Amino acid sequence: MNKYTWLVGFMTFILVTACESRKPIQEKQQVPSSQNEVKTGPPTSTILSVDTIRETQEPFKRAEYPYQKSQFEFKAGSDTYKAVTESYSLNDSSLTEVHRDSVQGKLTAVRIIKAHNHVYHINLTKNGKPVYSKRFTKQDFLKLENDGFIIESVPMAPEFRGITQDGRVLFDIWFGLPFSDFGSISFFSTDLKGNLLQLESYSSTGGNGCDGQVHTNPNRKYFLTCHTLYGPNGYSFEFGKPDMVTARFISDTTFFALYDYVQWSFDKKKKEWDSTYDRKTKNLIFYHVNGRKLASYRYDGFFNELDYGVPVLEVKGLGKLYLLDDERKSIHSFSTLNPDKSEIIPFTSLKKLKKRSTGEKWKEVTIDRTFFGKRYSFYFSADTLKAYFVKESS
Q1: From the CA atom positions of the chain, what is the Rg in Å?
Q2: What's the domain of life for this entry (predicted)?
Q3: 320-346: b or e for each residue (b if 16 or more CB lie within 10 Å)?
Q4: Which end of the chain is more exposed for a tag (fewer CB within 10 A), N or C?
Q5: Looking at residue 271, what is its pLDDT?
Q6: Are 230 and 204 found together in one domain?
Q7: Quick one: which H or E segment has residue 170?
C-alpha cells in the first residue's frame, strides 16, 4: 500500500471523529497570544490559580487500525532490505501535555493531558537474514525533538524508506493527534545496529502538508525531505520554506523543489487566518546536490486537498520529468539531464482516445491522483508522448 492510499485511510477515520483543528506546523510560531499555546512539562504554581482541566487519554487497542502495522522492501544494488514495523500503546498515562489558553496575554485556562507512551517496533532484514530488531518509545524520540505532537499522538507504525551508502536506515513516521485532522510527519534514521541517530519533523497533515517522503537518490549517496537535502559527512542543504508542495530527486545529482508562495496574516477582528497567494513568481526550482540552482519555472498544476498533491508522470528510461496541469490541459516536460530544457505539451497536440489502449503499440503511464478526481492514461511511442485517455470522476 503506498503512502497516499494509507494516508487517505487514516484521514478518513480522523476526519469523521474530528473535534478540533490546528494551524499547519509551519504556522505554529505565528499564532497570536489569543490562540492555544502548546507546551509540555508539569504545571507551575501560577497555572493552578486559573481554571484547570485535567484529562486522561482513552486506551488504544493494539492492531485496531491498518496504520499500526507496516512492511516495506528496499533494493540496494543486489541486496533486498525489508522492515516489518508495528506501533502499539503502553496505555500508561506516563506523559504530560499542557495547553495554555490566553486572551490578550492573560492566562485564562489550562488543560493538562495525561498521554500514553507508545512502542515502535522494527524488524529489519537483509536478503532474509536479521539485521536488527529494535524497540523505540515516544520518550526516545522526545530526546531528539519535540514538535508539539509526539506526546499526544496515536500509535502509528514507522514506514521504511531505504538505506544510504553509508548505512543510514531511513523511516517516515506520522505523529497524528487523536480525534483531529492534524499532526506532523517526521523522518528518523538509525545505523545498521539499530541505534537512533536523527529525528526531524518536515511536514504537517490535515492542511498544507507536502506531497513527499524521505527518500534517497538513485545511488543512495544523498537523501531528501521536503525541506532539506542530506549527504555524506554531515552535509545538509536547507532549501525549504513554509508551504512546501514537494521535493524529489530526478537523478543522482539533481532534484526539484516546488513551492506554494503564501502570505499568512491573522485578522484580529475576524479571529481567523487570511492567506494571499503569489501566482507569478517562479516556484519550480531545480537544484544540483551542491546547492546550485539549475533552472526555475512557474507551475500551477499542483493542488491542495487536505494536503498538497502533485500529478507526476513516472516514466522510467526516458530521461524526462512530466508534470500534469489538469486545469490548463497540458503537460510540462523537463529533461532530467538538463533541467533548463523544457516544453509545454498541450492536450490538443495529442490524440484523445475514447477508451484505454490494451495493445502493445504504446507504453501506458497512468495518473490516479488529480484535483478534479479524473484518472489519466498517457501513451508513449518510444520516447514521444502520443495520446491520452481520461476517465471522468464518477
Answers
A1: 23
A2: Bacteria
A3: bbbbbbbeeebbbbbbbeebeebeebe
A4: C
A5: 78
A6: yes
A7: strand 169-176
The residue out of 250, 279, 310 marking a domain boundary is 310
At 14, the amino acid letter reads I
- 258/318 same-domain check: no
Both 134 and 237 in a single domain?
yes
> 209 and 226: one domain?
yes
Phi, psi of 139 (to 5 degrees): -65, -35
Distance of alpha carbon 117 from alpha carbon 174, whole angstroms: 15
> Looking at the predicted structure, is the pLDDT value of residue 20 above 60?
no
Write down the residue that cell numbers 499526544 correspond to: 152
Residues 127, 237, single domain; the answer is yes
For 111-134, how does the pLDDT look when each residue is reduced to its tens digit (9 = 90+)? 999 999 999 999 999 999 999 999
Distance in angstroms (rounded) separating the CA atoms of residues 154 and 4? 19
- In the chain, the number of structural domains is 2
What mean pLDDT is predicted for residues 221-225? 98
Contact between 342 and 297 under an 8 Å Cβ cutoff? The reply is yes
* Runs of H (alpha helix) within the chain: 3-16, 138-142
